[in-house]
Sequence to fold (244 residues):
Amino acid sequence: MARDGTTRSLDNIDLASLRDPAGIFELVEVVGNGTYGQVYKGRHVKTGQLAAIKVMDVTEEEEDEIKLEINMLRSYSHHRNIATYYGAFVRKSPAGQDDQLWLVMEYCGAGSVTDLVKKTKGNSLKEDWIAYICREVLRGLLHLHSHHVIHRDIKGQNVLLTENAEVKLVDFGVSAQLDRTIGRRNTFIGTPYWMAPEVIACDENADSTYDYRSDLWSLGITALEMAEGAPRLRGSCRLWRAAW
Fold:
């Protein structure tokens, strides 16, 4: 069973049977950090095509979480607003050391929304850019929510841009599959500044629950991040007052 009680069967994913990436993909440079590992700019050895490669240790404690992320990517990444999943590989390590999992995905050469904000004069994007990015993120979320999936970590760092200004959601390390009948979660997980109040409440009250709408709150905080340069607790308070 995965960290947050996910009951989906992951037995059909055999990490030991995955191919070694040697001779197929190579790492070029570190470009960021994912939920459970570093993200590299990588290259397909034969074609030279660039890819984003998340590298993480395969530990017994996190094996189910790793399988869950692979399952999420291969099931739901076929959408224009989600970075395409290319495949998973395992690099074997010497005895006594953890093997490395390589998750290979579409490379978004323009970086994250957070990077864009930091590089923009005044640390603030124009309103039409904010509207465009929010619209594209909403399209990606609609795809996920229609399949009963909550992303649970929407923030500027997890919204990437291609060189053609396409908007792509990434990092499904803490995503969750909702039960089709109940449709709610009760796990405190995500990034606090962007976290919806009902998710925060789960840290103190075991009876608290939330659903896919928590992603919409996180997108609202991301919009404030794009407009003001940072998520800021006062942004959360402002949205809280509007919501309640």
Observations:
- Residues 111-243 form a domain with the Transferase(Phosphotransferase); domain 1 fold (CATH 1.10.510.10).
- The helical segments are 63-76, 113-119, 127-146, 197-201, 213-228, 233-243.
- The chain has six helices and ten strands.
